[in-house]
Amino acid sequence: MTTQAFDEMTAMGAEIRPGYERIKAWLSETDQEQLRLRQKEAELLFRRIGITFNVYGDADAEERLIPFDIVPRVITKTEWKNLTLGLEQRVKALNAFLSDIYNKGEIIKAGIVPEELVYKNPYYRPEMVGFRPPQNVYVPIAGIDIIRVDADTFYVLEDNARTPSGVSYMLENREVMLRLFPELCAESRVAPVENYPDELLATLRSIAPDSAPSSPTIGVLTPGPFNSAYYEHTFLADKLGVDLVEGRDLFVRDNIVYMRTTEGPRRIDVLYRRLDDDFLDPLVFRPDSALGVPGLMAAYRAGNIALANAVGTGVADDKAVYSYMPEIVRFYLGEEAILKNVPTYRCREPEALAYVLDHLEELVVKEVSGSGGYGMLIGPRSDKETIETFRAKLKAKPDDFIAQPTLALSTCPTFVASGVAPRHVDLRPFVLSGADKVRIVPGGLTRVALKDGSLVVNSSQGGGTKDTWVLND
Predict the structure, then answer these.
(1) If you ran DSSP here, which 8-state letter would residue 400 be given?
(2) Can you tell me the distance from the alpha carbon of 170 to that of 87, in angstroms, rounded to the nearest whole number?
(3) Which stretches make up the Circularly permuted ATP-grasp type domain (predicted)?
């Protein structure tokens, strides 16, 4: 396993890697003060756009800008082609897995995935048993987090199959780069990402119920303006040219979902919902939820509306289930996984737990249902007290954790206070699975750990974002 970070521009040497030649020349030609001015311009543009997020539980819970770095991350055409093959394969397997566990359960009967890992999962929804969503597509929108460790090796860090976020930043990052550096973008022959809303709209239309008209009515369901990703909800509704709705804007009659309009009720055929399962329908899930739509699940099970993503997809986000993805791909597709998992120790298994407890100082320990970089131990960067706290947690509830080697995420040149310096990055490409085909725009959200030496790229913990350039040449 790699211990020294692979630099995507120099590969840990003096020679510039393919694809980065123009970026290296640009950085050499541009003085620090000019870069600093452009960085400030980028920040001003983002403030004008109003692209912000909230950190839940923060004492200073005001809206913040996610820091943006003006040095793009470059991926060659060949690298991207290999990535897309692996991404398409993985999401096909995820959809097959979800369809199976809510119906025949063949993978459980075969002893591939332990039944308690599925049926006791907090995101498993018994309400979905024996039901297939319209067109049998469970994960129309997936965000697959990828890390790179050397010139040829990409790993999947985690799967996001519930309500993956961040695509608005991918699109706005490109818009800002085109405004600030139009010549650099043109010279570099960067593949466009601007068609993502069109691809998303085509995907959502393709999963509409059979009873829907040829031009189905689509809405984006948001919890409202206090949600941390509300900007993205409004952004996507605008780009798609569809209505942004809250639960109070909808009602169900005769198992059909309607939107209240000034011209009277209008039937909704597809909801791109950015609302967690628990809050969708107070008649089925949390009765105290005022965010959802009473009767929505009845309409869904009657086949009168499609939800993107389907209810119950959170099982596939579980980090213990993630550890079985090579077997899941093999079981459903009869293929070996193109994109590998990070080697993972399942703490629920006594032998693995014993190893983890003996090597906590070397490992990364994660909660199986955790996200956002929270509830995590990075052994080599933690003090003894923190390590002992996690040791107690592991002994008390081993089923709640997995552990992985501490990988050296690849680095990219990043403009920081001291100048251009390497910082660790990951990548979230967005995979759109329709009833007709899989669509993947060439790019994704590159997240960057702005703190020197940090491996945590999450915006809620000091991370930023970069534009991701997939080159056409």
Answers:
(1) G
(2) 18
(3) 72-449
